[in-house]
């Protein structure tokens, strides 16, 4: 009895003027165009972590000053060794990426670079 | 959230959400529109957050009713029809509305959510701020009262 009454009641269709679906779908489209809210903090975190790691890595590697003058550029060696000799192109690439630091130049060095003369030799190779 | 999901949710719940909001305020479409905008902005899956939508609609409807001095928390006699005119051997729509309006708000709320929203008692309980068993008790009591008042015993 109750079940039948329930069915009859629920069969009554609520009246309504529909809501503005166009506005809703437009908003949905807008939200979907927004950058992913999860990805941005993730990427920011990844970049920050990479930068921090790079900084630590730099500190661990050999640092050789090319001149005692404070205004002269300082060269920091990033990588300890590579099998192939560095090309001028590679040097430029490294230099350009750090161009905003006029007193500090980052250079990837080969395994032979251990002393200042090695470094000067390395530079002479770059500038050939 | 995908467009199809939102469309499916609207097909299923739009009318009941408006009926639900009508329990407290006289601008139910606006209230439901705002609640659904919130849902879209938060990028929540509508089918997974049905109870959340009903909660937002309830809060907004109560808030609108409180803000307006002209509107009463209890729906007045001059409100819009709640149901489409009945066809065939269905219950008289006007009589159903009249007797629903006479029910106490907590009982009527459970009836609306269960009968037209298709929500489970588990979903209704937090909305009606009661336990699951209390929601079930209110539902049965509401059905009995309606049947008696409509002379269908």
Shape call of chain A:
rod-shaped
How do the strands line up in the largest sheet of chain A?
A: 1-2-3
- Find the biggest chain interface: A-B, 23 and 38 residues
- Would you identify the regions of chain B where 5 or more consecutive residues have pLDDT less than 50? none
Structural category of chain A = mainly alpha
How much of the sequence of chain B is in beta strands? Answer: under 5%
> What's the β-strand tally of chain A?
3
Major sheet details of chain A: 3 strands, mixed
Mean pLDDT of chain A: 59
What distance lies between the first and last C-alpha atoms of chain B, to the nearest angstrom? 46 Å
What's the story with the biggest beta sheet of chain B? none
Shape call of chain B: globular
Secondary-structure element pattern of chain B, one letter each: HHHHHHH
**Mean pLDDT metric of chain B:** 88
Q: Give the total of domains of chain B.
A: 2
CATH homologous superfamily placement of the largest domain in chain B: Winged helix-like DNA-binding domain superfamily/Winged helix DNA-binding domain
SSE sequence of chain A, one letter per element: HHHEEHEH
Strand fraction of chain A equals 5-15%
Runs of chain A with pLDDT <50, length 5+? 59-96, 98-106
Q: Please give the radius of gyration of chain B in angstroms.
A: 16 Å
Please tally the helical runs of chain A, counting DSSP H or I stretches of 4 or more residues. 5
Could you characterize what this model shows?
The complex is a heterodimer of chains A (128) and B (153). Chain A is 51% helix and 9% strand. Chain A has 2 domains: 20-60; 61-128, no CATH class. Chain A is mainly alpha-helical. Chain B has 153 residues and is mainly α. Chain B folds into 2 domains: 1-72, no CATH class; 81-153, Winged helix-like DNA-binding domain superfamily/Winged helix DNA-binding domain (Arc Repressor Mutant, subunit A). Chain B is built from 7 helices and no strands. Chain B has helices spanning 3-22, 28-41, 50-67, 93-102, 105-115, 121-128, 132-149. The model of chain B has no long low-confidence stretch (mean pLDDT 88). Classes of the chains: A mainly alpha (128), B mainly alpha (153). The interface between A and B is medium-sized, with 23 and 38 residues.
């Amino acid at each position: 009895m109750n079940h039948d009454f329930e069915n009859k009641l629920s069969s009554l269709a609520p009246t309504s003027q529909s809501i503005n679906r166009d506005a809703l779908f437009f908003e949905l489209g807008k939200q979907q165009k927004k950058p992913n809210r999860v990805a941005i903090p993730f990427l920011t975190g990844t970049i920050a972590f990479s930068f921090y790691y790079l900084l630590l890595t730099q500190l661990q590697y050999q640092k050789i000053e090319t001149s005692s003058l404070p205004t002269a550029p300082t060269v920091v060696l990033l990588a300890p060794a590579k099998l192939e000799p560095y090309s001028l192109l590679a040097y430029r690439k490294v230099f350009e990426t750090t161009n905003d630091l006029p007193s500090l130049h980052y250079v990837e060095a080969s395994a032979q670079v251990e002393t200042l003369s090695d470094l000067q030799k390395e530079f002479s190779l770059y500038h050939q | 959230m995908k467009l199809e999901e939102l469309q499916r949710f609207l097909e299923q719940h739009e009318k009941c959400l408006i009926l639900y909001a009508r329990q407290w305020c006289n601008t139910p479409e606006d209230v439901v529109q705002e609640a659904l905008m919130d849902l879209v902005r938060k990028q929540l899956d509508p089918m997974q957050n049905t109870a959340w939508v009903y909660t937002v609609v309830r809060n907004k409807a109560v808030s609108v009713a409180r803000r307006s001095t002209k509107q009463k928390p209890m729906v007045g006699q001059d409100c819009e029809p709640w149901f489409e005119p009945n066809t065939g051997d269905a219950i008289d729509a006007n009589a159903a509305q009249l007797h629903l309006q006479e029910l106490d708000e907590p009982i009527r709320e459970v009836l609306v959510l269960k009968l037209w929203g298709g929500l489970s008692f588990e979903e209704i309980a937090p909305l009606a701020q009661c336990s699951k068993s209390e929601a079930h008790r209110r539902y049965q009591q509401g059905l009995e009262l309606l049947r008696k008042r409509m002379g269908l015993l």
